[in-house]
Specification:
By secondary structure, the protein is of the alpha+beta class. The chain has five helices and eight strands, in the order E-H-E-E-E-E-H-E-E-E-H-H-H. The protein has a domain of 147 residues: Thiol Ester Dehydrase, Chain A, CATH 3.10.129. The model has no long low-confidence stretch (mean pLDDT 91).
Length: 215
């Protein structure tokens, strides 16, 4: 897996719903009106030239017990001073355990610093796409936009900057996950079935070209 370009994309809702019906590990919430604005990290190319994206899921309480980094995911965060930075009631705040981070903070002030978990990038949930089912995200911030839209953009910029720093690591881990499943022909728990999704993608494209009902 190699990044053709590190970027965020929005995925077509109909395509997400189609994949979710075939592979339950694909994130999709039809009751969320903002789901079409859920960012996905791309664009990864496998050895066959297929494009893949990796979903981001917003930080939740369950992520408090997750490690920052594993072979399967990254917890995306920012370091904050809780005496100065505003903290909302629904923020996911955890203690800093990373010694490399702590070393950069004065010992007398460490008690005031925490990690705010922004989101999680779960490599196990990656799935195939092409430009017909995604739209590139533009980081537009404007006084004419709503506060919530600007806040969403600020959050994505933080996530994007975090992920571009580790793009090489993401490539290596995504490659290992994908190649291991394909070579062993075994789908591990919590992983998407990549071959099944590639077949589903081809069928979806075929239905789109023929103008048939995608249900």
């Amino acid at each position: 897996m190699k990044f053709d370009k590190v970027q965020f994309v929005y995925i077509d809702i109909k395509y997400l719903e189609y994949l979710h019906e075939i592979e339950p590990e694909i994130y999709f919430d039809k009751n969320d009106p903002n789901y079409k604005l859920k960012p996905h990290l791309g664009i990864l190319l496998n050895n066959d030239g297929r494009e893949y994206v990796i979903p981001l899921t917003s930080g939740k309480d369950k992520h408090k017990d997750w490690a920052d980094v594993t072979a399967s995911w990254y917890r995306i965060y920012e370091v904050i001073d809780i005496t100065e930075d505003p903290v909302k009631s629904d923020d996911v705040i955890v203690e800093i355990k990373n010694q490399d981070i702590l070393k950069k903070i004065d010992k007398d002030k460490r008690k005031d610093y925490r990690q705010r978990v922004l989101s999680v990038l779960d490599l196990r949930k990656m799935f195939p796409v092409d430009e017909s089912v995604y739209q590139k995200v533009k980081f537009d911030i404007s006084s004419s936009m709503s506060r919530s839209d600007n806040q969403r953009t600020f959050l994505m910029i933080k996530e994007y900057n975090f992920l571009t720093e580790i793009a090489d690591e993401i490539e290596k881990k995504a490659t290992k996950i994908y190649d291991k499943q394909i070579s062993k022909n075994k789908v591990l728990k919590y992983h998407c079935d990549y071959r099944k999704l590639e077949k589903a993608f081809d069928e979806y494209k075929g239905k789109c070209l023929l103008g048939t009902d995608i249900t």
